[in-house]
Amino acid sequence: MNSKIKQLFFEYYRDNFTIDETVIGNFRQREYALVPFDAPDKMVRHLAFSEFSELKKYILRNVPLHLYYSTAYYNTPQARNMDEKGWLGADLVFDIDVDHIPTKCKEEHDTWRCLDCNAEGKGMPPEKCPKCGSSRIDKEVWVCNKCLMVAIDETLRLVEEFLCDDFGINRKDIAVYFSGHRGFHIHVEDKRMLRLDQDARREIVDYIKGNGIKVELFNPLPKLSEPGWRGTIAQGIYEILSMINEGNEFIEGLTERDIKYLYEHRESIIKALDDNTIGSFRMPKPLLRRLVEQIVNRKAVNIDERVTTDIKRLIRFPESLHGKTGLKVTKVDLSVITEFDPFNDATWLQTSIKIKVIERIPKLELGSLKLDLSPGDIVILPASIALYIALRGKGEMVELI
Ligand SMILES: [Zn+2]
Ligand SMILES: [Zn+2]
Q: Is 191 helix (H, G, I), strand (E, B) or coil?
């Protein structure tokens, strides 16, 4: 089975793998790394190439299951010791991955099992086994359309509200890639960001996630058009007020008394938020705290902080294939991201594949298909979906159609 998939990967890299040279700035100063198809537990690191065609030659001889490059630039990227590489700077990168975002549909399609005590469950896998505390958790996770929509929404808010509006980064310096699995990578190539150290990047993460926001900053209430979190909190309060019409509504994160208070003071609060009035309003602190928490939960973006704060990170190479899915790390235009369908837009395969199912596949919506397959089923599927199932070890490729 693997040899058929390897052949498909090889043909992809031979016939379809191209990038615009400008996609990876300072190509010679990056480290490249790959996981070979034939040794999936091994990571070959510290590779360096002077141009894309050289890299391509190399990977045609060593077909990768996964291909990476460093977000960092180095004097000597091929040095085997990190300290000898000579760090020059690093792109600012963000990872939005549904793995870290609880979605309701995970109850339907994700399962986990503790390798130490065999406890198991459905939904988002815990970091540690709730029964024995072990962190050796075997997870089976899938990406469905609903999961993907959540990632798309987070990506749009990250780019538009935080990177462009709050940080003033130019849209043309931001590239968004489908990660090949359950999310998106956002690359910022802005000279002003290159030299930021780990602490500075940590501050950016804290800002975007709303970590440690001080409630006192919002008393008296800010105005709607203020920049940054002040304006966001004002808008959030305004949205909550617009959901309160009778004073007895249920709003997550708020108590009955909170709602009643907001209902009774509605007019004065709206006046205080309004940019065109001079009025101000001081909110009782416990209520303001619950409001701020609720709004931060909704408006912060769930980025994986380890990726952004790591200044020597390896990240998936644009247009490379993800070895767990067979999907391509694909550049996505933000203006059409809500239409993005990985099984159509992140594949190079236009054919169909006949596949024999060997393990149960949960009810899933993938692209335009609804799946629910049992062992022994033999089905013809769009090649991208068949390859995805085969790479998950849930089916065997029979033939290309
Ligand atoms: Zn356990
Ligand atoms: Zn889902």
A: coil
Ligand of minimum distance to the alpha carbon of 101: 2
Mean pLDDT of 251-275: 94
Ligand 1 is an ion; its neighbours by CB within 5 Å are 114, 116-117, 119, 129, 131-132, 134
Q: Could you tell me the distance, in angstroms and rounded to a whole number, from the CA of residue 128 to the centre of ligand 1?
A: 8
Short-list 227, 229, 255, CA closest to 240: 255
* Average pLDDT taken over every residue of the chain: 93
Query: 87-142, pLDDT tens digit by residue?
Result: 999 999 999 998 888 888 888 888 999 999 999 999 888 889 999 999 999 988 88
The full DSSP string for 18-52 is: ---GGGSSSGGG--EEEEETT-TT--EEEE--SSH
Say which ligand is closest to the CA of 117. Answer: 1
Ligand nearest the Cα of residue 145 is 2
Which whole-number Å values give the CA distances from 134 to 120, 125, 268, in the listed order? 12, 12, 53
> In angstroms, what is the span from residue 135 Cα to ligand 1's centroid?
8
Query: Which ligand has an atom closest to residue 138 CA?
Result: 1
Q: Which residues, at least 6 apart from 19, have a Cβ–Cβ distance to it below 8 Å?
A: 52, 318, 319
- C-alpha 22/C-alpha 342 separation (Å) is 24
Kindly report, residue by residue over 337-386, the tens digit of the pLDDT: 999 999 999 999 989 999 999 998 888 888 788 888 999 999 999 999 99
Cα(147) to ligand 1 centroid in Å equals: 27
CA distances from 378 to 45, 206, 288, 375 (A): 39, 49, 58, 9
Q: CA 101, CA 387: separation in Å to the nearest integer?
A: 25
Per cent of the chain over pLDDT 90 is 79
Which value does ipTM take for this structure? 0.94
Distance 303 CA to ligand 1 centre (A): 28
Q: What is the 131 CA–ligand 1 centroid distance (Å)? A: 5
What would you report as the CA-atom Rg of the chain, rounded to the nearest whole angstrom? 24
